[in-house]
């Protein structure tokens, strides 16, 4: 059994409610509780993360998943990695990686998000290609040049430590709208090189000081205890600008609200009618956060999961399951529920929901807890191609009947629920990166070491 006399702060993965306090490598606790020995070995942990990242370079192509009572077959996206640009800025395992993704047309949003976070970021840059198009090689070279320029610009600015990955996806022309958001999320998670990850869509800004508050000693120990020992996901309350604002006005308000980093400021902006809770058109999506309680709270509080809940979370890199890659396009992975109200107006969030992922996480034992001091703010933008495809046609425009795209995702959502209830849903999700998960060998048989 391996022993160390001065574990680092990040090495203190708390287990069985034990409390560990370490400053500058010296313990200030008379008793250090049991810890996962594998997690204490920084070199081994880094090696593991490197293996998973390399594995993500070669996702299984043309993978077909069969799920649900009807054994429906769904082909998962076949992404190809076309380029990787790593930051020259160093960061510790004990930092937090923001994992995100974007299409090239929205890459400008990455710069604002990078600055608002200020730490490690893994961003997957998506390039949609037309199947059998003879110009694809040219499109890839052009995208590489754009990606290299973006990365160089952000490295020079020094706003964050950005690892940028360009991935291509060759699909039939009539499916170019179907953004493979869950596949891209998985690619980002696979490449994170820290113990904790923040899962956030690119059109969100993080409140000023969020990373520093999370990395403060007491908050960091609490976060490790919550995410590792108690298998919790830490929820960051989400806000958006109101729809009476123009695009320019909304963008300015979003940046100011995130920059303020203040609950009092957010409360005043809500009273003034410039800020509201995120996605008011789909109340189930964020009701469980309990915004009134968040504004009153100075300490973390538990959240009771409700079906339809889709928060943005901070979670253990080792424990977070893969996202279900059957979902692509524009949201409505509503685990079987079709929308009743009209679609969100233009500029409303086009970032797809994560409901299926949260449903699977809670079903496999995750608990939710709200952070009382930090938040994220949606940055308004024009609707995506996936949004426009999903909410078009007379059937929906006139009577709000489900479109074919919505019905397809609803079927997948029902299959997910059926498999979870039957206990046959894959523990780590449905993904072309499934082969990478066995590399996390110590999760299967954790070794407990006493200090």
Automatic annotation (TrEMBL):
<dbReference type="GO" id="GO:0016020">
    <property type="term" value="C:membrane"/>
</dbReference>
<feature type="signal peptide">
    <location>
        <begin position="1"/>
        <end position="25"/>
    </location>
</feature>
<dbReference type="GO" id="GO:0015020">
    <property type="term" value="F:glucuronosyltransferase activity"/>
</dbReference>
<keyword id="KW-0472">Membrane</keyword>
<keyword id="KW-0735">Signal-anchor</keyword>
<protein>
    <submittedName>
        <fullName>Glycosyltransferase-like protein LARGE2</fullName>
    </submittedName>
</protein>
<keyword id="KW-1133">Transmembrane helix</keyword>
<dbReference type="GO" id="GO:0035269">
    <property type="term" value="P:protein O-linked glycosylation via mannose"/>
</dbReference>
<dbReference type="InterPro" id="IPR051292">
    <property type="entry name" value="Xyl/GlcA_transferase"/>
</dbReference>
<keyword id="KW-0808">Transferase</keyword>
<keyword id="KW-0325">Glycoprotein</keyword>
<keyword id="KW-0812">Transmembrane</keyword>
<keyword id="KW-0732">Signal</keyword>
<dbReference type="GO" id="GO:0042285">
    <property type="term" value="F:xylosyltransferase activity"/>
</dbReference>
<dbReference type="Pfam" id="PF13896">
    <property type="entry name" value="Glyco_transf_49"/>
</dbReference>
């Amino acid at each position: 059994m391996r022993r160390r006399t001065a574990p680092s702060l990040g090495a203190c993965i708390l287990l069985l409610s034990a409390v560990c306090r370490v400053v500058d490598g010296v313990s200030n606790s008379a008793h250090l509780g049991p810890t996962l020995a594998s997690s204490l070995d920084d070199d081994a942990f880094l090696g593991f993360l490197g293996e998973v990242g390399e594995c993500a370079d070669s996702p299984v192509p043309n993978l077909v998943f069969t799920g649900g009572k009807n054994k429906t077959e769904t082909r998962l996206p076949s992404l190809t990695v076309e380029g990787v640009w790593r930051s020259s800025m160093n960061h510790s395992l004990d930092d937090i990686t923001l994992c995100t993704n974007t299409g090239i047309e929205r890459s400008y949003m990455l710069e604002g998000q990078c600055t608002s976070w200020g730490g490690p970021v893994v961003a997957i840059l998506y390039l949609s290609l037309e199947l059998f198009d003879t110009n694809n090689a040219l499109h890839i070279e052009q995208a590489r040049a754009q990606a290299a320029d973006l990365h160089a610009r952000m490295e020079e600015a020094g706003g964050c430590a950005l690892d940028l990955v360009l991935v291509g996806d060759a699909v039939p022309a009539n499916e170019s709208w179907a953004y493979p958001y869950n596949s891209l999320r998985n690619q980002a998670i696979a490449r994170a090189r820290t113990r904790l990850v923040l899962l956030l869509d690119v059109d969100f800004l993080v409140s000023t000081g969020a990373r520093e508050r999370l990395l403060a000693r007491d908050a960091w120990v609490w976060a490790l205890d919550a995410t590792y020992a108690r298998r919790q996901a830490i929820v960051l309350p989400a806000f958006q600008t109101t729809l009476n604002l123009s695009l320019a006005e909304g963008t300015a308000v979003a940046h100011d609200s995130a920059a303020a980093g203040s609950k009092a400021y957010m409360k005043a902006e809500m009273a003034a009618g410039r800020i509201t809770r995120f996605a008011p058109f789909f109340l189930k999506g964020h009701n469980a956060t309990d915004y009134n309680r968040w504004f009153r709270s100075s300490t973390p509080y538990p959240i009771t999961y409700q079906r339809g809940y889709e928060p943005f979370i901070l979670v253990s890199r080792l424990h977070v399951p893969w996202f279900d890659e059957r979902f692509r396009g524009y949201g409505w992975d509503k685990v079987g529920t079709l929308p009743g109200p009209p679609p969100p107006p233009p500029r409303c969030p086009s970032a797809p929901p994560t409901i299926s992922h949260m449903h699977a996480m809670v079903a496999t034992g995750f608990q939710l807890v709200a952070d009382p001091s930090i938040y994220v703010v949606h940055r308004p933008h024009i609707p995506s191609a996936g949004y426009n495809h999903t909410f078009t046609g007379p059937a929906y425009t006139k009577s709000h009947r489900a479109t074919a795209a919505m019905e397809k995702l609803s079927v997948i959502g029902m299959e997910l629920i059926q498999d979870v209830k039957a206990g046959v849903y894959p523990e780590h999700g449905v993904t072309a990166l499934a082969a990478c998960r066995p590399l996390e060998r110590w999760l299967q048989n954790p070794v407990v070491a006493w200090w």
